[in-house]
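Feature request, filed as a ticket because there's no other form

It would be nice if the structure record came with a short human-readable summary line next to the tokens. Right now we just get the raw output. Example of a typical job, pasted below so the devs can see what we mean:
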Amino acid sequence: MNTINQTRWVFGYGSLMWRPGFEFTHSAQATLRGFSRSLCVYSHVHRGTPEKPGLVFGLDQLDQSDLCKGIAFQVDESHWQHTVDYLRAREQVTTVYLEEIVSIQLAGEKDQTVNALTYRVDTSHKQYAGQLGLDEQLKFIRQGRGQSGDCREYILSTADHLNELKVEDKNLQALASALS
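Raw output as currently delivered:
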């Protein structure tokens, strides 16, 4: 297995896929093993407030056989520290995410594995929602509005982007259908 550019990649699985907000030199579809994209974080800032939380995605480790498909962004070394600072300001507002370097597989790049910076949910954090049912998720999505906008728009944009990538996510498709 060939490993390339160990420390200059970012893995996005939610809004980072369609709104990275930083400069990158290359992007590719990528897979992270052992984690799933889960609507498991109460949003108190970006897509909700403490009084009316929305829901946003987190990487959750439910089953070692899980796969999360997303986008890997390669960042030029000259922009790396700025990118990390930007991501920390964006993702760590309430410290609900843990910053980690994970090993991901790049699609279309046979046997190319890279290490990438990503953010996974801290399951001990008070904003961790766990696995909510569809109706309960819809309640939080419909009420959520925060600094980055409407929670409904966040869900629909993520669903649209995953559809473009031909990534199937049955829960997200059910939510998008209910919100349309």
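Something like this underneath would help us a lot:
The longest helix spans residues 151-164.
The radius of gyration is 16 Å.
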